[in-house]
Design goal:
alpha/beta; 5-stranded parallel beta sheet; 17 helices
Length: 445
């Protein structure tokens, strides 16, 4: 069973574009890439599927034939006679450097064929084999774990979807929306986990999905690690990252290990290329362009909240009345906000944060976004209350006039003044479950 994903609209736009190029779909393992393309294939008269983990499919690209001969071989092997609009999907394309390089020739010599390549370890294996996609001859799209809106669609909460798109959401819907968002955070956005929960309503069944997924991530390491020591370090990082989400991390001795900074840095960046985690770096100014300071400690952002909860063994807290601010010191709320921002970004943008580091006092704003040419600070306060000391520090040191607080309360707008700098600003209080709608709420102002 496949769920509707918002990327399907982007794929349709790609199909209809007169400037279309072969497409490369990137995403972590099990985010649903193959399922999405299989669904999308219904838009075509002919669909040809290749999986380059199979030697019989991989060998079709091995002889350096011209691309028209390669395509004839593919059609012969698959006993297919292409009719009108034809989609060729090359799955796990990273297993064949030749297939990667030949993508350009589809663009140049067979532009009438719609070509999509995908792979879960794409960037890592390209580094290993020292290959790259031809510049200017392909385009890219990204698939992440399911967003809250996609989760609601999967759970057939149609009324909730309609109300989520009401700006602002009516008060009578707030309690149930908060409950659905809490469920989404604990189930997570990995499609198989969502399907398992929908079918069984049993977190133990969801746990089996995540056990298998974590094992597959660890098994994958042997495919690209250079040696046994690197394999051990990367697996240590996979096991440790969920415990460090929300922290400013230091590479040296990461995860209570004895590993050196260079070893951990290399492992983290490898897993970042696999899209299992992201390093969120800070900025120290409040002016556009927002340029991160890579000398300062980053925050860790994990792939998926459900996977994180499973690794931390805190899924059972779903059944308790603890607010999100009390679960894992609020780091779960910060994880899901970052996850939603990334999944709803148009060009795969890793959100930044702001920091001021002084001996007397430190300050930090959780996320920054740009709207209508202005920097907008975003604070995550998962309870209904919470101080805004860092936010006020940011406003006092900038020209910012609008700020956003994401919390478990209802929508409201406050006219505030910072306590020290006496700067006026408008605070928009937005429910956590509306994080993907921040721009719409800003537009409403």
């Amino acid at each position: 069973m496949g769920f509707y994903r918002k990327i399907q609209k982007e794929l349709q736009e790609w199909k209809d574009s007169p400037f279309r190029k072969p497409l490369v779909l990137r995403g972590a393992r099990q985010t649903g890439k193959t399922t999405v393309i299989n669904q999308f294939s219904k838009e075509f008269d002919t669909y040809i599927y290749l999986n380059l983990e199979k030697e019989s499919d991989k060998k079709l690209f091995e002889n350096n034939n011209n691309i028209k001969e390669v395509f004839q071989m593919i059609c012969f092997e698959k006993n297919t006679s292409p009719k009108e609009k034809t989609l060729l999907f090359i799955d796990e394309i990273q297993n064949s450097p030749n297939a990667v390089m030949q993508m350009r020739y589809f663009f140049e010599e067979l532009p009438e064929i719609f070509v999509i390549g995908a792979g879960s370890l794409l960037e890592i294996m390209m580094d290993v084999h020292k290959i790259s996609f031809p510049v200017g001859r392909v385009e890219y799209k990204y698939l992440f774990p399911m967003t809250f809106e996609e989760f609601l669609l999967a759970m057939e909460e149609n009324q909730a979807i309609d109300l989520l798109n009401s700006i602002p959401i009516p008060s009578f819907a707030h309690k149930k929306m908060l409950e659905l968002f809490r469920l989404y955070i604990f189930v997570g956005g990995m499609p198989e986990a969502v399907l398992r929960y929908k079918e069984t309503k049993d977190f133990l069944q969801v746990a089996k999905v995540y056990n298998s997924l974590i094992s597959s991530y660890k098994d994958d390491v042997s495919k690209y690690a250079k040696n046994t020591n690197e394999t051990t370090i990367i697996r240590h990082v996979i096991e440790t990252v969920p415990f460090e989400v929300g922290n400013r991390i230091t590479f040296e001795n990461f995860g209570n290990s004895g590993y050196k900074s260079k070893e951990i840095s290399s492992s983290l960046r490898t897993l970042e290329r696999a899209m299992i985690l992201y390093l969120r770096y800070p900025i120290t100014t409040a002016t556009i362009p927002l340029f991160p300071d890579f000398k300062l400690k980053p925050h860790l952002q994990f792939l998926d909240s459900g996977l994180m909860n499973h690794a931390l063994k805190i899924t059972g807290l779903y059944y308790k009345d603890d607010s999100l601010s009390e679960i894992y010191n609020g780091r779960l709320a910060e994880q899901i906000v970052g996850q939603e921002i990334i999944a709803n970004s148009t060009n795969f943008e890793i959100p930044l944060f702001w920091t001021r580091e002084k001996k007397q006092s430190n300050a930090e704003v959780d996320f920054l976004t740009i709207f209508d040419g202005e920097v907008i600070p975003i604070e995550v306060k998962s309870g209904k209350a919470g101080t805004l000391k860092s936010l006020h520090s940011f406003i006092d040191n900038s020209e910012v006039k609008i700020a956003v607080r994401l919390f478990s309360g209802e929508y409201s707008v406050e006219e505030n003044i910072t306590p020290i700098g006496r700067k006026p600003y408008k605070l928009i209080n937005i429910p956590l479950y509306c994080v993907a709608k921040i721009n719409e709420y800003l537009s409403k102002l």
